[in-house]
Amino acid sequence: xxxxxxxxxxxxxKNSDVDYIAQxxxxxxxxxxxxxxxxxxxKRLWEQIGNFIQxxxxxxxxxxxxxxNSLGSESCKEEFAYAIDRAxxxxxxxxxxxGLFPTTVxxxxxxxxxKTRLYVSTADPNWKxxxxxxxxxxxxxxNKSSLEPYLLEIHNVSTGGDHRFAIxxxxxxxxxxxxxxxxxxxxxxxxxxxxxxxxxxxxPTGVALFNTSSGLSExxxxxxxxASNEASPTQSYYILCKTLPRELIFxxxxxxxxxxxxxxx
Length: 265
Prior knowledge:
With 265 residues, this protein is an alpha/beta fold. The protein has 2 domains: 3-136, Toll/interleukin-1 receptor homology (TIR) domain (Rossmann fold); 150-262, Immunoglobulin-like. The protein has 8 helices and 14 strands. The strands form 3 sheets. It has a 5-stranded parallel β-sheet, with helices on both faces. Strands 10-11-8-13-14 form a 5-stranded antiparallel β-sheet, with no helix packed on it. Strands 6-7-12-9 form a 4-stranded antiparallel β-sheet, with no helix packed on it. The longest helix is centred in the first third of the chain and has 17 residues, at 74-90. It is elongated.
């Protein structure tokens, strides 16, 4: 079983947050050592920490619970500096030194020994596996979700107009041109759709669309909108709506790809 030493600021454990981190690491199959569990009273602190870090049979890696408190704590900084010195001198660069971040911190506080390494965030659902794999010297076993070939994001619009939402769509690779989008015709009055175009991630306030058209599909089931501006990984179309439609179809006009998204309203 892999073993790590955990450094933290005592103030971060007032509500047992550090104890929870240690508990979860233990449950994932890691032997966790920290001062309250493993340091003997009456003996020199640095000597005991040094023995843990220097001895391969005692420790496979070192983790700093990195917060504003720990990164600003003189005792934590001293422990970190000592750990880095002992680890590099006795164990070499292959010894895992990991910063575990529960939240964002002032970048100026992050020591170089952490900045130059891949750190771990507890916001990552795979944070325990990332630490464990580093201690065991292997690649993390991460379940990789299948991504759609497009990005779709719903933005709230607060420009004072009738439209409350902007549905952003763009390809993750390749281009769409001419662009086509459609909603069920029976929802046209309530949704009041209007297409716009601009840089990804920012709802445009005004833009020139080329070769635009709108009207019913041949079977009269959908209200369709088209434009010839080229959507790309950096340029998105925005479907402005009063309310979200039940269904949205979008992609290349009279071509492929085309995608259908159903909204759970």
